[in-house]
Amino acid sequence: MRLMHCYNTHQFRKLAKKRLPGPIFHYIDGGADDEITLQRNTIAFDRCDLVPNTLTGVDSVDMSTVVAGQKLNLPLFLSPTALQRLFHFEGEMAVAKAAEKFGTLFGLSSLGTTSIEAIGTLVNTPKMFQLYVHKDQGLTRHMIDQCKAADIDVLVLTVDVAVGGNRERDIETGFTSPLRLTPKSFLSFVRHPKWTFNYLTKAPFELPQLKDYLDEGNKVALTISDYFTHMLDQTMDWQSAETIANYWDKPFVIKGIMSCEDAKRAVKLGASAIMVSNHGGRQLDGSRSPFDQLAEIVDAVGDDIDVICDGGIRRGTHVLKALSIGAKACSGGRWYLYALAAGGQAGVERAIQNMQDEIERGMKLMGVKSINELNRGNLRFR
Length: 382
Known about the structure:
This protein has 382 residues and is α/β, with parallel strands linked by helices.
């Protein structure tokens, strides 16, 4: 299979599996425990049917939206995800440049492999930085200050990582950051010589947001779950979130909201948006899917705050279903990470183009000219 033959997320996944060493592919692909929630995040959309209208004169459609004060040309954006230069040597810069081409939001992770400064300087599209609150308060403050200096548009606080999820695939494959070779993983790297050559000959792997503060993740190998458990601040509470929001003093988003109670607290705190998310099924297995929980949260706070459906997105019709419930936009990681692994920036651009085409086609078949016309009357649940 070649990149030009990837018409959907499933095909990008197949190509990524072919091109990546096993431990790295399974890090992207895996979830927590029995991966029930990971599967549920996408399956949830299948229980919802679209009901189209016809003869509405839809020769052109408007897919734009405004989220956390950011005007986006597409109601789908690229969630912040860690370690992207492991998946392709172009890493976050490839993803950001692809987002720029389509006029949508790009997210950079605290565990990203490209610096805040580089993204702020070289990328001209709405940008968010995803903050993990570390036990080292100086590190946390440093990252926020770096975002201010780089004129990052939105700060997103991830709140569902009190401890690391039990990611058993990572344990089985021996995946760590930085990479730690085992006899089993060594064979996988040998069988993927192109990836291995690029990893060894391109710029050295590092986590630039962390390197001046921590050896863990840069020089001392840890699983991501162990990193969360040992390096992040487990005492973080709503008062901590409010302190961060006030210090940031620009659009502020909370990622990992799954209850109405927490959504209402986010409104009271003054957040610009919330991301209804279970961390892609990588934290609490057995939890609800974002799509299943979306209506309840939109009904509770949708008039007061922008609600984003994050996770499980594999098709443009998934986006249309979430928007019909009342989400302002959707986001996700795997749908573009598979494409990044499959073909770098060109792969991500193709993945976004596929999604854009699916959303546009779906809107025309639904008989709507603007995403603002989508509503729950367009849906039926089985």
